[in-house]
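Before relying on records like the one below, remember that each one covers exactly one chain. Contacts with other chains, cofactors or solvent are not represented anywhere in the record.
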Amino acid sequence: MSCYIRVKDAEVEQQGPSKTYLLLSDKQGSVKGCCSGLNLLLNEEYNTPGVHEDQEGFFVIEGTGWAKFGDEEFRLEPDMAMLAPAGVAHCMKKDPGAKVLKVLWFHAAI
């Protein structure tokens, strides 16, 4: 087991025009559902909201866009962090003029 991974070696999940790279999981030693990944969002409409039994944190690396967490909608920009508490529906979209909305995410057990 290796404790690291490169994005180019990560499992990729295609979601319409967007991609998710699974970076850290049990394969790198994470336990109790802790995992992280990288989203390259190319969608200009909100994607299907995620709802999880654990909390999920996000950090915007590149691009601009919008997010909905529960009933709250807010602007996204680089160097911004946010947290979706357990059970809260959340989704994101990039601005039409943005090349990509690149977001690091992580799930943390509670």
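Strands lie at 11-15, 18-24, 35-41, 55-62, 65-69, 72-76, 81-84, 90-94, 101-108.
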